[in-house]
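Dear colleague,

Thank you for sharing your sequence with our group. We've completed the structure prediction you requested, and as agreed, I am returning the results in plain text so they can be pasted directly into your records. Please verify that the sequence below matches your submission; if there's any discrepancy, let me know and we will rerun it promptly.
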Amino acid sequence: MSVPMHARGALRTALWLAELGLPVLPLREGKLPFGNCRACTDSACGDRPHMIAAGPCQCPRPCHAWAAATTDPDVLTSQAWATCWRQAEAIAYHPGGAGLTVVDLDDADAITWARQNLPETKVVATTRGQHWIYRGAMQSGNKIRASVDIKSFMTYARWYGPGTGSITELPDSVRALIVRQETPPRPVVHAITLPTATGGGVCCHRTPAYLERGIAMAERSISDAGSGIHNTVYRVFLAVLSKHGRCGCLTEGHVERLFTAAHVKGESPRHCTTAWANARTALGL
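Please find the predicted structure tokens below.
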């Protein structure tokens, strides 16, 4: 494999982190993961709903965002990943995969709050604030309070350096920031009974491919959300229901795919169920 000089530093760092047990992946411009390759576009590889377990997909490229993170040096140095290292702007890691939780503090107010409410641990300076890193994994969550995210399972955190201080055990005060359920992430869909349309529930405005394309686009909209995941999930649910909620063509499988995409972004089962119910109410379903 031939890797340009400007990419070798990132790859060396990635290999060092992998040796330490951190599953890593390259990030492109904007701190974004590399998009799915053509073979995996719109989940053609069959990654969903098994994405929660990093999927059955065997794609050799760093597809599927956090699920691509690896500690395997043969994968990191493979020809399939070489193009991404050439374009990489940063390195990320999957905290949950390493048994870690990152409290992402995006501004000075959030840092002040953490100092007043959370036990000391390893601190890493970021471009806008700090990462507080604890030993122990948990459910992730976006915007659990102003300018505070939890990054652990099913998400990635940018690597900014080793930081300062000693890492400490994940405290209950951090776990309590997320409303947890004992058996996530399978969504509760028993209450989602959609009315049929006039004419026996035959959807007159689409083909099966049209519906499939719409669900795939909805999944992608949720997956691409950079912030404000609660609002994004609600808007996507509202859009799907406004298009297909009255014709009876949505199945529990379609709804589960949307819920799974939201779970991958850190949305809790409770928030998904609430957002779906609110969207139905807004549309009078």
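Summary note from our side: The first strand starts at residue 24 and ends at 28.

Kind regards,
the structure core
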